[in-house]
Write a structure and sequence with these properties.
167 residues; mainly alpha; 0% strand; UPF0478
Length: 167
């Protein structure tokens, strides 16, 4: 009888074990079904995103090709600008050299004229206020033209020549 009772107890324990094992397997099957559905949704999303990414890459490639084409068209313009900069630098250097030469020439003429005026032009100071005013007027306006002090006219001429060369 102990054997029969032991066998019955083992049978009941086995039945309980099988019952709980079936419940666990059904819960695992439900979880696996959920995982399978989630993976299918993820796969769908990845496929949609993959298409959009491919479209974006194609669009970026088109933009890159367009930019490269436009850069190739702009290259001659940039080279011309570089050459123009070099030419303007050379013209500026030449203008600076001409200007300094002219200024040196005018300054030497002015110094010579001042020396000549000082050595040959000794006068007594005027006695009246009117004579002093007339003498200062003559010194201011007439000596400029005679002594070579009218260098502003030469600067205007040089500026006009420069503008004509630029055009």
């Amino acid at each position: 009888m102990i054997y029969q009772l032991s066998v019955a107890l083992i049978a009941v324990a086995f039945a309980v074990l099988v019952f709980f094992l079936i419940r666990t397997l059904k819960a695992a099957q439900g979880s696996l079904d959920n995982v399978s559905r989630t993976l299918q949704e993820v796969q769908k999303t990845v496929d949609e995103l993959s298409y959009e990414v491919k479209q974006t890459v194609r669009h970026a490639n088109d933009i890159t090709a367009d930019v490269q084409h436009k850069i190739k068209k702009i290259d001659p313009v940039l080279e011309s600008v570089e050459n123009l900069g070099e030419v303007l630098s050379e013209v500026t250097a030449a203008a600076k050299q001409v200007s300094s030469t002219l200024m040196t020439k005018f300054q030497t003429k002015r110094a010579e004229a001042d020396k000549a005026a000082q050595s040959s032009h000794v006068t007594a100071p005027p006695a009246t206020q009117t004579e002093r005013t007339l003498q200062s007027y003559d010194a201011t306006y007439h000596d400029e033209v005679k002594g070579g002090k009218n260098w502003m006219g030469y600067v205007d001429i040089a500026a006009n020549v420069w503008q004509r060369l630029r055009k």
